[in-house]
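Late entry, written up from scratch paper. The run itself happened at the end of the previous shift, but nothing got recorded in the book at the time, so transcribing now.
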Amino acid sequence: MFSKRLHPWFVVSLLTVACGCSPAPDAAVEAVEAVGPPVADIQSCREWLARALPVIERAPMETRWRPVLEAVAGSCAAIPEPLREAAARTASVTAEARPAVLAAAVDVHETAQCTMTATAAPALDVAARCPMPPPFDFAPELLRDLDAGTYLFGRSLAESLAALDLLEAGGRRVVDTLLLSAAIANEALRQRG
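Output as recorded:
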C-alpha cells in the first residue's frame, strides 16, 4: 500500500525516467524540502497542542501570554528552533524586553517590509505592511495595544503552524491567545505606568 505522499527521491527519479531528461542539480534537494516534516513530527505537534491548550486556558487572560510562550518553548520539533528558544528566553526577561527577544527569533528570510527596529512600538504599522496569514484578522484596537515584536513572533508561529496544517488543531487558538493576552497586558501596563 502506498503512503499519501511519495518520497521526493522517487518523484525526481520518476520524472527523470518519464521525460528522459536530467533534473536540475538542486531539484532533488528542493523536492526533499517541499515534503515537510515527517508525519510523526506533525502528530507530536498535535499532542503538544492538546496538552498545552488546557494549561494556557486556565491562566487569567492578562497573563496567558506567559503559558503560551512556555508551551512554545517546550513544543514539538517541527516548530522552528529559533521560535522555541526565544519563547524560552522570555521567562528570564522583563515585560519591556520581551518584544525584542521575540522579534529576534523571526525568520531571517522575512521580507524587508516585515522587519523593524522599534519592537516595542504598536503593531498597527507593521501589521499593515506585513499582514498575518489567513484566517487571522485582528482589529486595529488590538494592534494598537500589541507590541510589534510579539506580533512578528505570532506571525512566524502562525505561519509555522499553518505549514504543519495545525491551525484547526488548536494552533489558531494558541496564536490568538498569545496576541490578545499580550495586548491586554500591554494596555494594563500602560494604565498602571
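The mean pLDDT is 81.
(Scratch paper discarded after transcription.)
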